[in-house]
Design brief:
Layout (H helix, E strand, L loop, with lengths): L3 H11 L5 E2 H8 L3 H13 L3 E7 L7 E6 L5 E7 L3 E8 L4 E8 L6 H19 L6 E8 L3 E2 L4 E3 L8 E3 L1 H9 L3 E5 H12 L8 E6 L3 E7 L2 E3 L29 H4 L2 H10 L12 H16 L3 H25 L3 E5 L3 H19 L9 E4 L6 H15 L11
Parallel strand pairs: 4-7, 7-11, 12-15, 15-16
Antiparallel strand pairs: 1-3, 2-3, 4-5, 5-6, 8-9, 9-10, 12-13, 13-14
Helix pairs in contact: 1-3, 2-3, 4-5, 6-12, 8-9, 9-10, 10-11
């Protein structure tokens, strides 16, 4: 990509959907007009930006606007969830070019899952019609914990057999592409900052509602990953002291009271769902959970009570987090969010507002994601674009 100044200019153009003129770029980034002109020419030659018409209403000649070239670069995003694996091809402006999903293979064989992912990526890129040479790489959003530096998945609770699996390197060998691996909750937060619109600005937490529940953190427009890349592990916040025992030794944790597998078990016990063929693997839980949410949506009182109870408990966890971090908003999303959204958006905002330590200073908004259900996969692809295009100190070359 060249030097740091190039990425600064490209990032400024990316953040202006309507485009920027060379004069406006010089004012924003503080570089000389000649430097702006030289770098703009390089970006045009690399097909990363385009000249998109002229604008101007005052004296002087109209200014040529520069915008990102949507087809200048692409990234593949993979969201590995224990229930379903989602794939997207994302263009340079963050739009989904192609999408597909498949049930995550059950069993404790990571190799089989990686082979499935690699084959699906090859098929997806071919079906998208995108020039493979313009694919910058693959981003993978995985359940945590992960070893961010090594690109390995480290024994996620809901992916049995995935202990120290070198997902990044194995997928790079299988596809021949550059690969990044990050946590699913972090990837979702990245997606919100890149494609979420107003909900992705400032400081917020992203409550990821998947097979597990986690939290992505963004403070002052910067994604917070923590020392090892595992910030946001909230499964053992106690939200119901008299609740079900958790495998950590405590009782009433988020993990033991709120995740879809637990809600499905509660529905079976209450007679809301048929438990005669109940399976606890990811895809089966998703199917049962969707049935539970559909029953609640149709007015089944028992199903509604189960979802409402979970909303109260999750809101307690959210309250702990927002008081610790002092954020502007809470954004909910993830593969299981659509079924929960109606009940959660009715109940959670009031509980959060009541428990907020800063409620007399600033409000806390509670909203659904602006990205949609594919937020994990879109976030994974955004990781690649962020890595390739965003200004980073490693690129820094001072202008002479």
């Amino acid at each position: 990509m060249g030097d740091f100044n190039l990425t600064v200019i490209l990032d400024a153009i990316r953040r202006a959907p309507g485009g920027l003129s060379r004069v406006e770029l010089a004012q924003i980034v503080g570089l000389s007009p000649q430097t702006i002109s030289n770098i703009s020419r390089r970006l045009l030659d690399q097909n990363l930006i385009v000249e998109a018409g002229k604008e101007g209403s005052g004296p002087g000649k109209p200014r040529t606007m520069l915008r990102l070239n949507a087809s200048g670069m692409y990234a593949v995003g993979v969201h590995l969830d224990p229930a379903v694996t989602t794939f997207v091809v994302l263009d340079l402006v963050g739009s989904v070019v192609k999408h597909t999903s498949t049930m995550t293979p059950s069993g404790a064989d990571p190799g089989a899952v990686i082979d499935t992912i690699a084959a699906q990526i090859t098929r997806l890129v071919a079906d998208s019609g995108v020039d493979p040479a313009r694919v910058a790489g693959i981003g993978v959003a995985s359940p945590g914990p992960i070893d961010l530096e090594a690109g390995t998945v480290v024994d996620p609770p809901l992916l049995p057999g995935w202990d120290r699996v070198p997902l990044r390197d194995a997928l790079a060998r299988a596809t021949g592409l550059f690969v990044l691996v990050d946590k699913d909750v972090t990837s979702a937060a990245v997606a919100e900052t890149w494609a979420g619109g107003p909900s992705g600005a400032g400081s917020f937490i992203f409550m990821y509602m998947g097979t597990g529940i986690g939290c992505g953190i963004v403070l002052n427009d910067e994604v917070v990953r923590g020392t090892s890349g595992n910030a946001g592990e909230i499964g053992h916040i106690v939200v119901d002291p008299g609740g079900a025992p958790c495998d950590c030794g405590l009782t009433g944790c988020v993990k033991s009271t709120c995740i879809p597998q637990v809600l499905v078990a509660q529905a079976v016990e209450a007679g809301v769902l048929d438990g005669s063929h109940q399976d606890t693997n990811g895809p089966a839980v998703q199917d049962s959970f969707n049935k539970l949410c559909a029953l609640a949506y149709d007015g089944d009182d028992r199903a509604t009570r189960i979802l409402d109870r979970s909303a109260v408990l999750v809101a307690r966890a959210v309250s702990v987090i927002i008081n610790a971090l002092d954020v502007d908003r809470v954004v909910f999303g993830g593969p299981f969010w659509s079924g929960l959204s109606g009940r959660y958006l009715k109940l959670v905002p009031g509980i959060v507002r009541e428990n907020s330590a800063t409620r007399q200073i600033h409000p806390i908004d509670v909203v659904g994601t602006g990205v949609g259900e594919d937020v994990g996969a879109i976030g994974a692809a955004s990781l690649v674009l962020e890595h390739t295009l965003a200004p980073r100190s490693q690129r820094l070359l001072l202008e002479g």
